[in-house]
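I can't quite decide. Please look over this sequence plus structure tokens:

:::
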Amino acid sequence: MNRLRAVTDSPGDQSSAIAACMSAFDDTRDSQFFFSGSSSASVLKALEEFAIAGNNGIGMVTAGPGCGKSMLRTRLYRQLAERNVDCVMLENALLDFDGLLLEIISQLEGRRIWPNEYADRYSRLAALKQSLLRRTVSTGGKLILLVDEAQQLDQAALEGVRAITNIASERQNYVTPLLFGQPELASRLGRTPEFASRLAYSGRLGPLSVDETGDYIRHRIKVATGLAAFPFTADAVERLHALSAGIPRNLNRQCKMGLQICLQQKKNAVSASLLPKSRENSPSAPDWHDSCLIPG
């Protein structure tokens, strides 16, 4: 682990720096906070290559709650947009398939499409094809569907997303769905032969290692504040990793709590003594039993 440096300026500057660092651990999907850990960096690279490649089937990324699926999706969307790849982000997986169609068409057309404009599924599918041909296919591109929390899709919506991949010419597929979901998504797709035959990429995000935990914290502080200060001691980082099990969302919560206590007690840095001794003693204990910790 790299040597960890605490804030060592005057007391007033210390408090200001520590207070500023708290914003680094806000609950946000700002893609600037994306951390290239061992699993996230490789999955992001593979997804980008998969999305811009020629003919593909369906891609899938799984991870437990708080492991960074939504942040990864947001970062991928930004990088694909920079490469002029047409993308649609579907963040509400509780919609039925007809609702998903309206959302896709709305994003392609750049305006809200109301249900009465295309009253049935046939007209919505026809409108989708027209939008694709006019806005995407005519320029030699294709559409990437980024579906968040895909494990929440009902079976009919899931089947509909698969069916959209049939919109193609003899030589090119026009739509590539990328599904982001919790581990049960992989089980569902594996039990559906039609999906299994179309699944062309599968990635998985895991928890951070101890070394990555320190780097992650430093990265968040640098992005949020521009400060080089690192108000956590080495033993605090080890405790934070144990408390969070390496899960970024839980780590953010514990870091903010530690900084709050540090300010209240007027300490120079967060040490392990300011943090709970175990997950069971943490106020966030119910979140620790996270399915992303399944080995593999």
